Amino acid sequence: MSKPLKQIHLAAHFPGVNNTTVWSDPKAGSHIEFTSFAHFARTAERAKFDFLFLAEGLRLREQGGKIYDLDVVGRPDTFTVLAALAAVTEYLGLTGTINSTFNEPYEVARQFASLDHLSGGRAAWNVVTSWDAFTGENFRRGGFLPQGERYSRAKEFLATAGELFDSWHGDEIVADQATGVFLRDAKAGSFVHTGRHFDIHGQFNVPRSPQGRPVVFQAGDSDEGREFAASSADAIFSRYATLEGGQAFYTDVKNRLAQYGRRHDQLLILPAASFALADTDAEAEELAREVRCQQVSGATAIKHLEFVWNRDLSAYDPEGPLPDIDPDVSDNHISKGRAQVRMYRDPLATAREWRELAEANNWSIRDLVINTGNRQNFVGSPATIAKTINDYVQADASDGFILVPHITPTGLDDFADKVVPLLQEQGVFRTDYEGPTLRHHLGLAHPDEASDERAAS
Fold first, then answer.
1. Total structural domains in the chain?
2. What is the pLDDT of residues 302-338, one digit of tens each?
């Protein structure tokens, strides 16, 4: 007997200006005006996506002591944008990245509980930590925490926020004698938390929201991050969007759930994925190549090489050969506030590998960056992309994907109109929303129901 087909989860990431977007394309719109966010969100909701995802930028990135102006734009506050989107959407989940290193549990819990009320139960929190002192300079405490301390604080931060969400009680339903309207008898509760990172007490001032708690996402890939997700998250924002890499990550994280008394279906794994969609596979391959070339200008190629070399390479010709000098492996890095720096943990080995590739293929600096940098995860016609996504999900490489288009805000339109209907025809993606909250979309129990289930078992 064959196992039933898994239902695919789809979401959309509004990426902002960075090396994945083609902001110079005439079709590209503003990355800060509300009309762009609204168009993007409405397209995702029209396609019956689970949620929209916003990342976080706490400081403008720098390179060589100057603002990195090739891909930086002012990024508006996450909560403000999501609250505004709640007014122009009805079902779409609203997910925001909020840092646990520099914020406080009371403030963040209050903001998410408010967003959950405003949206009718559609709020989600991507819990992240901050890894660099550069970002920390924008905050009162400054500095940053070592990796182990970051996750220790994040776990306690999330647990403390949960205590705040749960401090309101509303189990009793009473009738208002004057109006005949049934009201929930909500009782404000006090909270007391004494721990390693937080020592707070008082009363939470936002009543229990429709979802009880926001859906919790996590995006870390380290062993600590995977354990954090297995113990505490509802979904994990993964970077493994290939079949083999996705299957390995999926198996590893899902196998960690049992030690926390959780089932496989209580944590969704949703990799980020880019795509190049055209009428035919050949046209899509050509588009994918064109997009990669647009993403990597000569100036961008030089800046990317500086991530590894940790030197000012502005004197080099991007259409010429790679530098013959070795990278500077000192801790004082030329690039500030950019996660890509951490990807190259052995710059000398990376430089040797890149030189070998460039020599073997007769590549210039720009050619190398184009061919070793970001590649679209899904390339093809609507039928090809729909089949690939479904194959990956059914093969347990993921539970779905968070799509990152290269054009904002219209880059999702063709996917919504051409790929989604094919997935719906195959019976692996919804034709309509089955409930009003994000927990409904993701198939996750309300926290109160989950507590009852654990008690019964």
1. 2
2. 988 998 999 999 999 999 999 999 999 887 777 766 6
